[in-house]
Amino acid sequence: DARKLHIGMVFQNFTLIPAMTVIENIALFLPDLGMVLDRKQIIKKIDSISKRFHLEVKPLAPVWQLSIGEQQKVEVLKLLLANARLLILDEPTKVLAPHEIAALFKVMRGLKEEGYSVIFITHKIREVLECADRITVMRRGRVTGQLMRAEASEDKIIEMMFGKTKIKQVERIIKAGTTSSKPLLEIKKASTKAQGFSVGLKDIDLKIFQGEIVGVAGVSGNGQKELGDLILGLLKCEKGHKFLFGENATHWHIGRVRREGAAFIPENPLSMAAVPNMTSQENMAVNNTRKYSRRHGFFIDLATALADLEQSFENLGLTAPPFLCPIKTLSGGNIQRVIVARELAQSAELIVAFYPTKGLDVLSTTAIQQVLIRFRNSGCGIILISDDLEELFSMSDRLIVLYQGKMVGHFKPEETNMVDIGHLMTGVRG
Q: How far is residue 70's CA from residue 77's CA, in Å, rounded to a whole number?
């Protein structure tokens, strides 16, 4: 029905087939595809639309070889070639580098000038103010207000999103002598083997000390996940060594790493850190059976697990979801809240945080960021992997940049800027 009404959507998770070429992915989406694929005709259409809207792509390239920004262009091309006139973009800047975001906004402006309508869904207020003509704010599934761009400001939008609740800014408390001379984590010349479409890490040197946050910047798929997996023992060193808490941990498995004092906020909470059919309460308990088992392991103390989870939510300042329904029935943001609360309820010396504020609203994002800052100020070492450069700059004591599995930059935030980091992220410099 939506296609008949010329409505199309680019989802957060792209709907492309990696092994197929750009032209094949687009052809599968076209409503008038015949029995035989007329490649020349489709390429002609792609060239016409791509030049018109600055959506240049290589029609014969396999999708898996394209960057995230290029894959997003293919998704938009699919809709335009299928005659969509209203395009819905769901969090389109989430995994883009700064220069790719600027290119996307140029595409959106071009579409508007040609008479197309674009619905831009995002949590990022500054991006809304930069590119929207009219702004609609929703809270808990209801529209709370509409503004023209000329009337809008960050404060007005936040008030419409959360009422008159005051949102505190994240403040890093810089203490003299916060870090120790002995690292919690030390990686020496570590390399890993590439697996499938993932990259291998190449000669990584990294130290994490007590009382600091080290931010990891990079376009998705350039080794951030692999670095986290290496630290946690999910990925083996092909070369080099890893030391945790003063011991050689090169061959430690993830169970040992966690027992020794590492917490893990994963990239995909439901598939990597939860049992989908269990409740949030049960997921809290199975995460630490040593703590919650009773009677020699024949009984699990779910009541204590629930109390600890509730206490963690209170400490974090997060709105608690239902704890007694299967975790898979919760929204993505609520699943993330449960896993963050569970992990930060444990005593940890080192936190590996993959996108810890992903999917959260502004209040919850700020609460999580403040908690990480408190953990940092109490002496915890944190490695923060995020695709939000503003978050990385505001929270990190040091920044590293990964590109194609290599560490191509290492800075203090005050020594660099987002444009230079963006260039390193995309291989323009480095």
A: 11
pLDDT at 180: 61
Please give the Cα distance from 147 to 321 (Å, whole number). 30
pLDDT digits (tens, 9 = 90+) for 361-385: 777 788 888 889 988 998 999 999 9
Sign of CA dihedral 173, 179, 184, 189: positive
CA angle 406, 215, 371 (to 5 degrees): 155
C-alpha dist (Å) from residue 281 to 154, 301, 302, 320? 37, 10, 7, 12
pLDDT at res. 241:
96
In 3D, which of 411, 362, 420 has the Cα closest to residue 391?
A: 362
What phi and psi, each to the nearest 5 degrees, are found at residue 424?
-65, -40
Q: Work out the burial of residue 60: count CB atoms within 10 Å of its CB; fewer than 13 is exposed, 13-18 middle, 19 or more buried.
A: exposed
The rounded distance, in Å, linking the Cα atoms of 215 and 128 is 25
Integer Cα distance of 249 and 204 in angstroms: 15
The identity of residue 178, as a single letter, is T
DSSP state of 320: P
Residue 196 gets which letter from DSSP? T
- Which ranges of 260-301 would DSSP assign to H, the alpha helix? 269-273, 280-286, 289-292
Sorting pLDDT into bands at 50, 70 and 90, what band is 119? Answer: very high
Helix/strand/coil percent split, the chain, to 5? 40, 20, 40
3-state secondary structure (DSSP) of residue 128: helix
Domain 7-132 superfamily per CATH? P-loop containing nucleotide triphosphate hydrolases (3.40.50.300)
Looking at the predicted structure, is the pLDDT value of residue 169 above 60?
A: no
Q: Where are the domains of the chain?
A: 7-132, 185-425
User: Residues near 1 by Cβ (< 8 Å), separated by ≥ 6?
Assistant: none
In angstroms, rounded to a whole number, what is the distance separating the alpha carbons of residues 232 and 241?
A: 13
Q: Among 77, 73, 78, which residue's Cα sits nearest to residue 92?
A: 73
Cβ-Cβ contacts under 8 Å for 199 (sequence gap 6 or more): 221, 222, 223, 226, 404, 405
Tokens of 209: 């000390």
> Is there a common fold for 7-132 and 185-425?
yes
For domain 185-425, the question of CATH label 3.90.79.10 is answered with no
Percent of all residues in the chain with a pLDDT value above 70, rounded to a whole number: 93
As a whole number of angstroms, the distance between CA 21 and CA 233 comes to 35
Nearest of 88, 78, 84, 121 to residue 9 by alpha carbon: 88
pTM for this prediction: 0.66
- pLDDT band of residue 346 (cuts 50, 70, 90) is confident
